[in-house]
């Protein structure tokens, strides 16, 4: 074997798949043409990618460890040196269809659709309830301005592949125990494109696109919540060969609010009031997302009472109307009393005949399981 793939990636021969992946990612970040424009690193990047292609595949790695390079066929020039592994694949393809990289479908296009992207955007509660507009910055790919996506240097053109003569595939006749079998596979010289790029564009290295950073405007509708995904069609990265752009999906993450808790389209808030206010009644101002509202605390309000303010909750996504705001009342019992306060409360207890309190146990209604239990116990 001409190349030592383990040495290329800088890993031991018994390295785990995770160690191989980490080593490749580290080298790719250093050597990728989009990151490192130094031409001297481009060949090294190709070698690293080839090594990872073999060692990241369990079957190819096993063949390599046994002394056979799975990429030898792709690197060779002729149609006869495909190796034992490729012979088996060709046999399967000839009988059951399929094909390694093109089959009998002709040359594959250099222009392909770009990848989709998923981005997360954090919103305040008010932004999620009422909607907003957000600017998000993304690292993406756009058509190369120098070659306009062609991938060739100025004045240069793609050349027909001399091996496959533009078909993008080569045929191979092999003698097997079943007789002679003719198979077709992607041309190893042009990788199935049917043409070669003898003079790649110096800016995009023949890819037809370059990396850049862009700012996208996202119109967030009212009523979104954590997990809602918005589609920005065609706002993803441009594909190889200046192909159609992919899409961007924006996933909403609603940040917790210090006062309000959201449950679906409804909002909940807990309002603590003194015991005296609950007994006597009062009016308390509450700052909501829609401004200040007056909460009428009626005389005798109990802890746990809930007042509902209709239509002051979250907007209903893609529907009209809003949820409600539920105000939960928590009555605070004083924990520290001075002498005068204690005397006043003791007088109140006397006036209400509450000096000695008899415990009153509230009976809960018997539920379904209670009735079943009683039926089996004979009660």
Topology overview:
Elements: H1 5-9, H2 17-31, H3 42-55, H4 58-65, H5 72-75, H6 83-96, E1 117-123, H7 125-130, E2 132-143, E3 159-160, E4 169-176, E5 179-186, E6 195-196, E7 209-220, E8 229-232, E9 248-254, E10 261-263, E11 266-274, H8 275-280, E12 282-288, E13 291-297, E14 306-309, E15 325-332, H9 339-351, H10 368-377
Parallel strand pairs: 1-9, 11-15
Antiparallel strand pairs: 2-7, 3-6, 4-5, 8-9, 10-11, 12-13, 14-15
Helix pairs in contact: 2-3
Written overview of the protein:
The radius of gyration is 36 Å and the shape is elongated. Residues 74-104 have low confidence and may be disordered. 25% of the residues lie in helices and 26% in strands. The longest helix is centred in the N-terminal third of the chain and has 15 residues, at 17-31. The strands form six sheets. Strands 10-11-15-14 form a four-stranded mixed sheet. The protein has a three-stranded mixed sheet with strand order 1-9-8. With 379 residues, the protein is of the alpha+beta class. The protein has three domains: 1-70, Helix Hairpins (Orthogonal Bundle), CATH 1.10.287; 101-158 and 197-255, HSP40/DNAj peptide-binding domain (Sandwich), CATH 2.60.260.20; 261-347, HSP40/DNAj peptide-binding domain. A hairpin with a 2-residue loop joins strand 4 (169-176) and strand 5. It has helices at 5-9, 17-31, 42-55, 58-65, 72-75, 83-96, 125-130, 275-280, 339-351, 368-377; strands spanning 117-123, 132-143, 159-160, 169-176, 179-186, 195-196, 209-220, 229-232, 248-254, 261-263, 266-274, 282-288, 291-297, 306-309, 325-332.
